[in-house]
Write a structure and sequence with these properties.
The complex is a heterotrimer of chains A (about 280), B (about 375) and C (about 150). With about 280 residues, chain A is α/β, with parallel strands linked by helices. In chain A, about 20% of the residues lie in helices and about 30% in strands. Chain A has a 7-stranded mixed β-sheet, with helices on both faces. A 6-stranded antiparallel β-sheet of chain A has the order 4-3-6-1-2-5. In chain A, strand 13 and strand 14 form a beta hairpin. The longest helix of chain A has 14 residues. Chain A starts with 10 loop residues before the first strand and ends in a 5-residue tail after the last helix. Chain B has about 375 residues and is an alpha+beta fold. Chain B folds into 2 domains: about 230 residues, no CATH class; about 130 residues, no CATH class. Chain B is about 30% helix and about 25% strand. Chain B has 13 helices and 16 strands. The longest helix of chain B has 20 residues. In chain C, strand 4 and strand 5 form a beta hairpin. In chain C, helix 1 packs across helix 2 and helix 3 packs across helix 4. Chains A and B meet through strand 1 of A and strand 6, strand 7, strand 13, strand 14 and strand 15 of B.
């Protein structure tokens, strides 16, 4: 926790820059407006972002954990609050509470191969993990990033993707559900990238984030490759009002997604994950 | 509030006519005194300075979807059993402003936060209610984050408990091991006795503070016979429970039965009205509302009671995770009896029976648990 | 009362299958009926059957949290429901639900697999037919995916 005495009171952060990723998704760079040095966080954690007078929403942190002075959030405009956040301009102030929740086992995966499977905006909460892995490259075996989006217009972080693809020590697979001629990349769902990805299942850790349906099918494919459920990690999303385990909204069985999650080891939630309307 | 066992603590007798003095002493010591009163045909909790406003002579009839106040044949003060209010309305208020803020300066300035709460004294707290407070203590005070708002209201709380002289039709505290006798968590515990022209209270002292307050109220040592009378009354209550709940392996029972067709059966009856969550003394879910004024320069954040029965509760990405009534009832009952245990180390249910009484279609949590158990025995 | 053998021979899936093979298959076949709304199978369950639909309509669905069941495709008279019986680990990948009153022939997948192992000619005949079903399915899916009708993309 960023030293807040009352976890329900947001801290002011100033917008330093806004980049449009797609027609409805924006990446904001923020820095503390009250003199604090930054917001240290672990990859996979989230903040509650507050648009003054409008409301608060839980958004995963999508920046580099090694650079906590700049707080980065990729936000999709789907409702009143996210719309207000996406319309922010440089100099505007947003409220931030956090960081909350569990994190990807980036550090713990040292010594293993790592497979990152992202669907749609699911790449945003995974990017901090990838940054960490790449900053500590020598500690890991093979690293594969498999990313699927609806169309090429929906791809996030396209310039970074290009840069990553050029690295020799990182496998990058990108696919879209549909494309027009002129697209020379893969077309098909992201699970189709798993059978060909380069990693040793006996030594691999998988981190998966995207719509629940996509995660369901992805876990199946990863298991088919031989990765054990205790080495597969997913990130869940639920309605959150407080993010500190008091409002009750984010419950998933006995867990609170805001504090026991959002990152879960798959074998620990597999039974409930297979059930409906939990 | 001290939690020590009361074996060997002294018992005294307080005459009915002197009970008002107890309220006066607490008032003079700066407590906001809260207790039972009759309003809108129910016994509710509110400020209580005079016993003239207490439910003198009132008793109640409770059953599934039924609550009726009736005049009793005596002038007992505590013949009623728990009503629609629980003490959570004071410790965990239904509507609370968390803070106010304005723009300007560094863009977000908090101008006011929820303030201190005056210390309170609760009069007439039943054993099940003491357990409910202890359950909420575990929710709000024992985790990684502690709720400062709950803490402020919980601190300095003076509890005058009452050992129930009768059980209502929907009570099952005996099954949940939460009553009817108060065994901890009180400063003073009263057992009301009306016999042959006498009306008095046998008072058990539960804390140093309780003893201190009692010193200012006329009382005398309780005789062995008076103590025995009190014990008999409470023992009788324990045998009068209107409902029972078999708690053996209840957590595992619910975890095994997420797909039991019984949930569809309840769903046909449940209106998802949320009454049960409102009257339940342990339900704690809240929502957060952010508002602003027309200038857009002043904002407030409010916290309000919420219910897992609403469609909004699990809304995300354009739809609710628990869209069906079945899923929402299942969530409530599974949380109350099972997942609560994994979350907080105790059951969420204290056997007060309010959810049964106040359900408009008389859904009975004890019956539903029973049905789930029976369905396993059949197959 | 029509015999099961006659019904099998008349279903498009078995068109052209020789008499002795049909007789072999009858041992794995049974008549089934599903009421409107009845769930035929759920994702994750063991898939030991496939169905030749004689009458009615079946929806192939997928459940998504917050969206509920999404109908991916419907199948009707003359069509075939289910191919998970053919591919390990023999578990349904989707949900199947009867939209209307549906009558079908259920073929026991485990039984069929056994018979195909014993007689590879039978196996080949079945594979030819199943490939046709799959190919049609893939074509249809691709067309659906191409979202050809235009209009605004959300």
């Amino acid at each position: 926790m960023a030293g807040l005495s009352d976890p329900m009171v947001p801290s002011p952060f100033r917008v330093r820059g806004v980049r449009k990723e797609t027609y409805d998704t924006f990446t904001l760079e923020l820095e503390p407006a009250n003199g604090a040095a930054g917001l240290p966080f672990a990859p996979g954690q989230l903040n509650m972002l507050y648009a003054f007078g409008v409301g608060e929403v839980p958004i995963s942190i999508s920046g580099d954990p090694a650079k906590p002075q700049t707080l980065v959030h990729t936000v999709r405009s789907v409702g009143a609050v996210t719309q207000a956040i996406c319309k922010s301009k440089r100099g505007d102030v947003l409220g931030v509470r956090g960081p909350f929740g569990s994190h990807w086992p980036a550090e713990e995966a040292a010594g293993s191969d790592v497979v990152i499977v992202a669907g749609g905006i699911g790449l945003a909460p995974l990017r901090p993990a990838l940054y960490y892995l790449l900053s500590n490259r020598e500690k890991y075996g093979k690293i594969a990033l498999l990313y699927g989006a609806r169309t090429r217009q929906d791809l996030l972080y396209t310039s970074e993707l290009e840069r990553w693809r050029g690295q020799f020590d990182l496998e990058v697979g990108v696919t879209v559900d549909t494309a027009t001629a002129g697209w020379r990349g893969n077309v098909g769902v992201v699970t189709t990238l798993i059978p060909r990805a380069q990693f040793d299942p006996a030594q691999a850790v998988a981190m998966v984030c995207g719509p629940e349906v996509m995660m369901r099918f992805t876990v199946r494919e990863l298991e088919a490759r031989g990765i054990g459920r205790e080495n597969i990690f997913i990130s869940l999303e639920r309605n959150m009002k407080c993010a500190i385990g008091f409002c009750g909204h984010c419950q998933f069985g006995p867990t609170f997604v805001c504090k026991d999650g959002p990152v879960f080891r798959f074998d620990q939630v597999q039974t409930l994950f297979a059930k409906r309307e939990i | 509030m001290k939690g020590t066992s009361l074996q060997g603590k002294e018992s005294v007798v307080l005459e009915r006519d002197h009970l008002q003095r107890l309220l006066d002493v607490l008032g003079k010591r700066g407590y906001r005194v809260l207790g039972p009163t009759v309003r809108d045909s129910a016994v509710v909790y509110d400020d209580l300075t005079s016993l003239a406003d207490a439910p003198v002579g009132w008793t109640d009839e409770q059953d599934g979807g039924t609550y009726r106040l009736k005049k009793g044949n005596d002038r007992a003060l505590f013949s009623y059993v728990v009503g629609p209010h629980s003490w959570k309305k004071f410790l965990h208020p239904p509507v609370l402003r968390l803070w106010r803020a304005k723009t300007g300066g560094n863009g977000l300035q908090i101008t006011e936060k929820d303030g201190e709460a005056p210390k309170s004294a609760f009069i007439g707290v039943r054993s099940c209610e003491i357990h409910a407070i202890a359950v909420q203590d575990k929710v709000f005070l024992n985790g990684e984050y502690s709720d400062p708002l709950y803490k402020a209201r919980r601190q300095g709380l003076f509890i005058v408990a009452v050992n129930c002289g009768r059980a209502a039709g929907t009570c099952f505290c005996a099954s949940m091991n939460t009553g009817p006798k108060a065994t901890f968590g009180f400063d003073l515990a009263l057992t009301e006795v009306l016999e042959a022209g006498r009306h008095y209270f046998v008072v058990e002292v539960g804390s140093e503070l309780g003893a201190e307050v009692l010193r200012e109220v006329p009382h005398k040592a309780a005789s062995a016979e008076e103590k025995a009378t009190a014990e008999r009354i409470v023992a009788k209550t324990a045998g009068q429970m209107g409902r029972t709940l078999d708690t053996r392996g209840i957590k595992e029972l619910l975890y095994r039965n997420y797909e039991n067709p019984r949930w569809d059966d309840v769903a046909k009856r449940c209106l998802t009205c949320g009454n049960c969550t409102l009257v339940c003394p342990t339900c704690f879910c809240v929502t957060v509302e952010d508002i602003t004024d027309l200038t857009g320069e002043h904002a407030e954040r409010w916290r309000k009671w919420d219910s897992c029965f609403t469609m909004d509760f699990s809304y995300i990405h354009g739809g609710s995770i628990r869209a069906s009534a079945m899923a929402r009832y299942r969530q409530w009952m599974t949380h109350k009896l099972a997942t609560w245990i994994d979350q907080f180390g105790t059951s969420g249910c204290v056997g007060c029976g309010r959810c049964i009484t106040w359900c408009p279609v008389a859904i009975d949590i004890t019956e539903e648990a029973s049905a789930l158990r029976r369905s396993e025995q059949k197959s | 009362m029509e015999t099961l053998e006659r019904i099998l021979s008349e279903h498009p899936f078995f068109k052209g299958l020789e008499e002795p093979y049909l007789q072999l298959l009858v041992g794995c076949a049974s008549n089934v009926r599903f009421d409107a709304g009845e769930v035929i199978f759920r994702e994750g369950e063991e898939a030991n059957k496939f169905y030749l639909i004689r009458q009615g309509k079946v929806a192939v669905e997928m459940f998504a949290p917050s969206r509920g069941p999404i109908i991916l495709q419907t199948l009707g008279e003359g069509e075939v429901l289910g191919w998970s019986w053919l591919v390990a680990p023999y578990r349904w990948r989707f949900d199947g639900r009867a939209v209307e009153l549906t009558r079908a022939i259920a073929l026991d997948g485990e039984c069929l697999r056994g018979k195909c192992e014993e007689d590879h000619n039978l196996g080949y005949e079945l594979m030819k037919r199943v490939s046709l079903v799959m190919e049609k399915l893939v074509q249809a899916t691709r067309l659906q995916l191409a979202d050809v009708y235009g209009g605004s993309r959300s």
